[in-house]
Amino acid sequence: MSQPFRSADIRQAFINFFISKQHTPVPSSSLIPHNDPTLLFTNAGMNQFKETFLGMEPRDYTRAVTSQKCVRAGGKHNDLDNVGYTARHHTFFEMLGNFSFGDYFKQAGIAYIWEFLTADNWLAIDKTRLYVTIYHTDDEAFDIWHNEIGLPAERIIRIGDNKGTPYASDNFWTMGDTGPCGPCTEVFYDHGADIEGGLPGTPEEDGDRYIEIWNCVFMQFNRQKDGTMLPLPAPSVDTGMGLERISAIMQGVHGNYQIDLFTHLMDAAAKILGINNEQQSSLKVIADHIRAVSFLIADGVMPGNEGRGYVLRRIIRRAVRHGNKLGAESDFFYQMVAPLVAEMGTAYPELVAKQSVIENAIQKEETQFAKTLAQGLRLLATELEGLQDGDVLSGEAAFKLYDTYGFPVDLTADITRERGIRIDEAEFDEHMQAQRERARDAGKFDVDYSSVIQVETPTTFIGYEQLHDDNVNIVALYQDGKAVDSLAEGMEGVIVLDRTPFYAEGGGQVGELGEIRSASGVFEVQDTKKSGQAIIHYGVVTMGEINAKQVADAQVLSSIRSASAKNHSATHLLHAALRQVLGSDVTQKGSLVSSEVLRFDFSYDKPVSPAELSKIERLVNEQIQANAPACIENMSIDKAMDKGAMALFGEKYGSDVRVLTMGTDVIVDGKQQPFSIELCGGLHVQRTGDIGLLKITSEGGIAAGIRRIEAVTGMNAVKYIQQSEQQLSELAGQLKVKRPEVAQRVRTMSDKQRDLEKQLERLEQKIASAQAANLLDDVQTIAGTPVLISTLSGVDGKSIRTLMDDIKSKLPDSIIVLIGDKDEQLALAASVAKSVMARVKAGDIIRHLAGELGGKGGGKPDYAQGGASKGDNSVTVISALPAWLESQLG
Ligand code: SER
């Protein structure tokens, strides 16, 4: 084939090459790792095959090839800080990879790499420019490179544990702290002697001359949390080559930012900003970040304050700041989406589909950040005054920027770095830690018994079928976290049974309540939780005593159970209705179901309008009216997903799952499916009609991009509506209008009140000036200085200030003290003429007066003000003021 040059052609050539070697092409997985809480973002091609390497998820192929979307920002592999400053780092990049699952190993792994890179009909790269590294003890890899490929020994570099501990090496690849890993061999390309940098393993290795282009991992181990390396079921291969790096080589340029794709993006950014593309670092940052940001939003991440959302926010803010440096005056970053779609939309159709969602989310974030950016930059400039290259900015200042202006610390670091200034990170971390502790203390309201009690005995849950069992066995009792033999009357404690009908808190549903009775006593269950494999009942002995090993009768409170079940099922209907009305980007962020209320948190970046809320409420109630059965089935996770069941990201499900289907059929994405279908382990109604009624009681934001809806069902909904009705009737009665006219009447009343307040203000000012007209008669002379001290009743601070200006002009070279007395509050103001200021200052007068009156105040030498509550001593204090002034002036 002719040599491919465009990035898109290279991507295709790679896939074709491995297809010709019997590899199955597999699409890129989402940037949000599916079912893997150990990973922030997909950061390597192998992520989607993690379980396959571990032998837990067999596939129907043993060889695969992918072009995988990756983000390395936040988390273990984090390149964010380097982007813009090196020739080769990105937040988002495409990783080309081939994989063997227990099929070929080192020999074929290396041979394929060499063939694709150097064969004339593939990339035909000049062999003399290639070097490789191997793990220091990997003689097998050495032999293959040297004897079979024919690479001279001096081009094969052994890299040991250069990061301090065993297996911590550039040539031992680990996905995270745990998971599949193994030694690797990496291929390096020499960009030529005119570029600075040294071979891997030398002190100059971080330069841009020798660039790693392809990493081939020989997957052999499953790393455990404690560092133990367990062997994988079969040795495997995982390779990864950055598309941007290989494109640079094929296009004869030395940096990734000079390849076709980045040239187009940087040109577009320059055009939007009205400048020339001179390869400024900030342009590189913008071109890089628009990719990470757009792909993340396309995959469902929204800017927020924690986790993935926070990393996304940091990336957007960093880009905005760099735009600002280049002179951007208003929102610009969102305008980069269109050029990106033009570049990458063909290979990644999700970008085209989500273009407007991405643009809106970015623009909203830009507008929000623009407000604080200018203020924050000013504060930072003040903090940086006097600091020079090599100095350190205090961690406290960086924390203040973060806390007050939302400057992520890496953004502050990015700015200080331009001036060679470092941040005191240890001090910053201390402040962050203290803040976290404050937040935690504020949220602490309950004791987590499950962490105190470590029960190993698994409990069988029988509550799906029954509320009651009179033949259960007490297997353990605890008091204050310690196992005991019995619990006496009045004692609080925990009971563990061999099986129980009590539902333990989980899946958003609170733990159940009820009673456990034995031959000798009664225990009131006040909460039920999980602790390891056991279900623990927390409560108090209300009669007699409870002994370990007794047989008992466990009874769940049925009224509470049925009310909770109504709320839980209604939560599912609400979730489905929300997605129908607001769009399928709405994802569940949390839920709480008790017998009283239901609460549902979801991602959505603006308030839900009253019209939308009422539509959502109507949809749910239509389903309730339809009285369709609520079906629970156990099935394989794959079948559930196939049926369109909703599951929570990051939640670990077993291979068999419990699926709840409810409601009449609807059409979703052109497919007919039940109104609601979700994985759930909770307790539910039998038919939707059992819910009775759903009433939304509130909607509001709880964090950036996250909304919360609260609602009630069944008799609680009836109660809520009756109360609202009653309040409205009362209001109508008080206002003497019919109920539909209440709102109009309230509007008229508040307009009238506003008019009256204005009128009152005008009158007060009139009174004040009337009083002022006579004031000049009260001027006294103290130590040769004209002094006016006057208390004006019914006058507030605002009017006092106006009056002061008025009188000052009429009384030159004097001291004026005015005291407004309104609504039991004293407003104090003092003015001292310039000629008198050397003897007494206005600030001193107010501080003295306010101090004596038990209030506060202060100001400048010529004018000061303050306030105090009126007290028994007010008159005495004010009448003693001339004497005090005399002592000061005299
Ligand atoms: N997993 C390895 C890497 O990310 C090779 O694909 O470098």
TrEMBL record:
Its EC number is 6.1.1.7. Consists of three domains; the N-terminal catalytic domain, the editing domain and the C-terminal C-Ala domain. The editing domain removes incorrectly charged amino acids, while the C-Ala domain, along with tRNA(Ala), serves as a bridge to cooperatively bring together the editing and aminoacylation centers thus stimulating deacylation of misacylated tRNAs. Residues 5-723 form the Alanyl-transfer RNA synthetases family profile domain. Catalyzes the attachment of alanine to tRNA(Ala) in a two-step reaction: alanine is first activated by ATP to form Ala-AMP and then transferred to the acceptor end of tRNA(Ala). Also edits incorrectly charged Ser-tRNA(Ala) and Gly-tRNA(Ala) via its editing domain. Belongs to the class-II aminoacyl-tRNA synthetase family. The gene is alaS. One of its GO terms (cellular component) is cytosol. Its cofactor is Zn(2+). Its main location: cytoplasm. This is Alanine--tRNA ligase. Zn(2+) binds at H568, H572, C680, H684.
